[in-house]
Prior knowledge:
By secondary structure, the protein is mainly alpha-helical. Helices cover 83% and strands 0% of the residues.
Amino acid sequence: MKEIQDKTKKKFLEAMTPQKAGQFLLLGLFWLLFSLPLVTIGPATCAVFYIGIKILYDEKDLKLWPLFLKGFKENFKQGLIMSLISVLTYGAAGFFDYWVVAKSSRGIILIFLAAGASFVVLIFNLFLYPIIARYENSLGNDIKNAIALAFTYNKDTIRLVGLAVLEIAVIVFLAYLNLFAGLAALLFWPSVIFYTVTWFMAGIFYRVENPIKYDDEGNEIEAQEEDSEIESESEEAETEAQEEEAETESDSKSDSDSQE
C-alpha cells in the first residue's frame, strides 16, 4: 500500500513542468490581488486550490483567470466563513503562545500545550481550504472530513505541516534580515506554499477517490483485472488472426475451384 501511495505522490512531483510552475506563480499573484480586501482571503484561497488540483491532475485547456473567478464565486460564502474561522483560530493560538512564552514560569506542560494547539490549528486550516474547493458539502461535513483525512494520512499530515512551517520560517527570516528582501520574496511565497499544500492534498484526494481494493488473499483486485484484460485481449487477437487465416484459405480454395 505504501509503495502505491509513494508512486502516486511521485507522479505529481514528476509532473511539475515550467508551465505548471508558471501557472502556480500566476495563481499566487491572483491570490494576492483578491486578498487585498482581507475579508476575501478565504474565497481567494479556495479559488487557488480549486485550480491547483486541476493543474496537478493534468486537466487540459485550463484557463486560469476564468477558472479562478469561477472558484472564487462558487466558494465565496464558505470562504468568507473560513476567513473568520482562520482569524479566530490563528488569533487564539497566537495569543496562547504569546501568553505562555511571555511568562517562562508557566511550565513545560503549558509550553507543549501551546505548541500542540498551534499544530492543530495549522492542520485544520491547511486541510479545510482544499476540501472546500474540491467537494460540494456543508461546512460542518467539511470540518469532519478534514479531521478524518488528517488522522488517516497522519504521515502526510506531519510532512505537510513540517514543510509549511519551514517555508513560513524562511520568509520571516528574510524579512528579518532585510525588509525589502522579505517583501520581494512575498511575491513568490504564496505560490510556493500553495504548491506544497496542493501537492500533498492532491495525492490524498487521489487515493480517496481511487481506492485500492484487495481480495481475501490480500492481492490487488485492480491488478488482477488488468492482467485478465490483457489476457483476454491477447486471446481475442489470436482468435481474430486465426479467423483471418481461415478466411484467406477459404478464399484461395474457392479461387482454385473456380479455375478448375
